[in-house]
Automatic annotation (TrEMBL):
Keyword Zinc carried by entry: no
Descriptive protein name: TetR/AcrR family transcriptional regulator
Domain of life: Bacteria
Species in which this protein is naturally found: Streptomyces acidicola
Keyword set, alphabetical order: DNA-binding, Transcription, Transcription regulation
Gene Ontology MF term list: DNA-binding transcription factor activity; transcription cis-regulatory region binding
Record's keyword annotation contains Transcription regulation: yes
DNA-binding region(s) in UniProt: 41-60
HTH tetR-type domain sequence ranges: 18-78
Length: 208
């Protein structure tokens, strides 16, 4: 992964460019988790990352672009789905991953800050939507496998089932100060699995 004998100025994955991006995104994430978007300042991020201010301004330009890149990096780093052989097992694995992320002392505040920023900044909202779209698409095949096994009715909206798992956990994060534990995660998974089996997520349900 080292830059080895690369010519000065060449861009290589794993070289200086990648190290600079990693350092800047880590500094941005730390600042977001600690103090929120209002305190994000490109010069301060450059100082925290020990990177030249000019480099940061040239590469990202605005705080919004930096937050969007941080979300893209988080999507790329996210863990792959778990497949247990049953819908409930898979959804519990998904719920516990969400729960661990949101209960984490750094990740929880970081996501709260991202959501807050997205309410008033269109580019951040777009980046946040893209992040969740990637995560939902990663886990949707678990529901398709449940359809193929006959656990869930044909025509079930696989994406909606995955969203239903996370929804109660995010709601609790944003509306209460309660700690999110594994029991909350399992309950969210059980509710989504039961609803899916009952046909609650059939496409076009109730229309026409």
């Amino acid at each position: 992964m080292g830059s080895g004998g690369a010519e000065p100025g060449t861009v290589r994955p794993g070289g200086r460019t990648a190290r600079v991006r990693a350092a800047v995104l880590r500094a941005a994430g730390d600042t977001l988790a600690e103090r929120g978007v209002a305190h994000l300042d490109l010069a301060d991020i450059a100082r925290r990352a020990d990177v030249g201010k000019t480099t940061v301004y040239r590469r990202w330009g605005t705080v919004t672009s930096l937050v969007a890149d941080l979300l893209m990096d988080m999507a790329e780093q996210s863990l792959p789905r778990t497949e247990t052989g049953s819908l409930l097992g898979d959804l519990k694995a998904n719920a516990r991953l969400v729960q661990r992320t949101l209960a984490d002392p750094r990740q929880g505040p970081l996501f709260k800050a991202m959501i807050a920023a997205a309410t008033c900044e269109a580019k951040t909202a777009e980046a946040l939507h893209h992040f969740y779209d990637i995560r939902v698409k990663e886990w949707a095949p678990c529901v398709q496998q449940a359809i193929d096994r006959g656990e869930v009715p044909e025509g079930t909206d696989t994406h909606e089932v995955i969203r239903a798992v996370s929804a109660p956990l995010y709601y609790r994060l944003l509306t209460t100060g309660d700690h999110l534990d594994e029991a909350a995660a399992d309950r969210a998974a059980e509710a989504a699995a039961a609803a899916a089996r009952a046909g609650a997520y059939l496409r076009n349900k109730g229309l026409g």
